[in-house]
């Protein structure tokens, strides 16, 4: 919808943004001590700089909360802006902490 590939559906946007905001709370506890083993794209810096990594996770959670608010407002331009901001928080962390 944000890219104009699907028609704007305010209810679907709000429902999906709510799910994303909920899921955003889940994964970061999974990067606990001792979870740096095995088949993973997670870089060792995650555990060496846990505070910075966690801060990146919180930024993403805040951005998805803002996207959720925008989606409930039903204004596509505001949703696009919030989606762009949320996407930056994903990319920032993947650039630093995820292997290619
Ligand atoms: C604080 C850091 C961080 C943030 C923020 C983050 N990710 Fe990730 N993400 C990772 C790491 C690290 C991995 C690799 C995990 C592994 O291989 O164990 C990953 C893996 C993934 C994967 C699994 C598939 C793959 O390509 O490895 C998906 C899908 C994904 N992220 C989507 C997202 C989306 C969408 C967002 C934003 C809404 C996001 N991530 C925000 C750190 C982050």
Taking pLDDT < 50 over at least 5 consecutive residues as the criterion, the unreliable ranges are: none
The DSSP helix count reads 4
Helix content: 55-70%
Q: Report the CATH topology name of the domain at 44-100.
A: Four Helix Bundle (Hemerythrin (Met), subunit A)
Helices and strands, in order, run as HHHH
Report the sheet-strand fraction: under 5%
CATH domain class name of the domain at 44-100: Mainly Alpha
Q: What is bound: which ligands?
A: heme C
For the termini, the CA-CA separation is: 28 Å
Mean pLDDT: 95
CATH homology-level superfamily of the domain at 44-100: Cytochrome c/b562
CATH A-level architecture of the domain at 44-100: Up-down Bundle
| Number of DSSP E strands | 0
The rounded Rg comes to: 15 Å
Largest sheet: none
What does this structure look like?
This protein has four helices and no strands. With 100 residues, the chain is an all-alpha fold. It has helices at residues 10-23, 45-48, 50-73, 76-97. Bound molecules: heme C. Heme C is lined by residues 40-42, 53, 56-57, 60, 86, 89-90, 93-94, 97-98.
What keyword list fits this structure?
about 100 residues, mainly alpha, Four Helix Bundle (Hemerythrin (Met), subunit A), binds heme C
């Amino acid at each position: 919808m944000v890219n104009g590939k699907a028609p704007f559906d305010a209810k679907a946007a709000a429902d999906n943004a709510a799910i994303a905001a909920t899921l955003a709370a889940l994964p970061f506890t999974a990067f606990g001590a001792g979870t740096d083993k095995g088949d993973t794209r997670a870089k060792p810096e995650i555990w060496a700089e846990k505070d910075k990594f966690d801060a990146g996770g919180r930024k993403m959670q805040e951005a998805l909360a803002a996207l959720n608010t925008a989606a409930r407002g039903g204004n596509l331009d505001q949703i696009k802006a919030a989606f762009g901001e949320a996407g930056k928080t994903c990319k920032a962390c993947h650039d630093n902490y995820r292997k290619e």
